[in-house]
Amino acid sequence: MGLQLGDIAPDFTADTTAGEIGFREWKSGSWAVLFSHPADFTPVCTTELGRVAQLKAEWAARGAKPIALSVDSVADHNNWIPDIDAVNETTVDYPIIADPDKKVAELYGMIHPNEGDTSSVRSVFIIDPADKVRLTLTYPKSVGRNFDEILRALDALQLTDRAAVSTPVDWRKGDRVIVPPTVSTEDAKAKFGDVDEVKPYLRFVAAPEA
Description:
By secondary structure, this protein is α+β, with helices and mostly antiparallel strands. The protein has two domains: 13-145, Glutaredoxin (3-Layer(aba) Sandwich), CATH 3.40.30.10; 163-205, Antioxidant, Horf6, Chain A, domain2 (Antioxidant, Horf6, Chain A, domain 2, 2-Layer Sandwich), CATH 3.30.1020.10. Helix content is 32%, strand content 22%. It has helices at residues 23-27, 43-54, 56-61, 74-88, 103-107, 147-162, 185-192, and strands spanning 13-16, 19-22, 31-36, 64-70, 96-98, 122-127, 133-139, 177-178, 196-199, 202-205. A hairpin with a 2-residue loop joins strand 1 (13-16) and strand 2. Helix 2 (43-54) packs across helix 4 (74-88). The protein is elongated and about 60 Å long. The model has no long low-confidence stretch (mean pLDDT 94).
């Protein structure tokens, strides 16, 4: 069985484009977005890693650090980065892990042999400051990820950690939120102000300010 939500993310030491890192020491109490891609010098991956670089300010605003992984070498990563930068008009300055022995990929369950080979699939792990796995996503190799959705999910995680609320379908930062069933309507009014009671079990309030 692979990593589950709430599990402590395994620590590891690996060579990267930023030198050798110990994962927990590198993330150092921050949120982290660890994502794998199948191979360097491939089309979908070139667009994905470029998009993550374009979102540098968005990751920073959320106190999150992105880090990529594939089973290629540091030399291959470094040779590929100029292509990513040129195609996406950006600068990749986050680490890319070299995992040729597949140690980290196996540790995180990123190898899915039924997908056709033993390269890593498009896995995503959002890991919180306490090193817990808070969200996982897995895409097939042919489908590029939506990193705007990963940012949206990170916003929701950080909000629901900060306040006793849940987020509804398609929620985006600034939208109203849901009062959990464990909180009474009277307590919700005292805490949040106006409560829109659609059903006794479905009550909306304005999103608490940061």
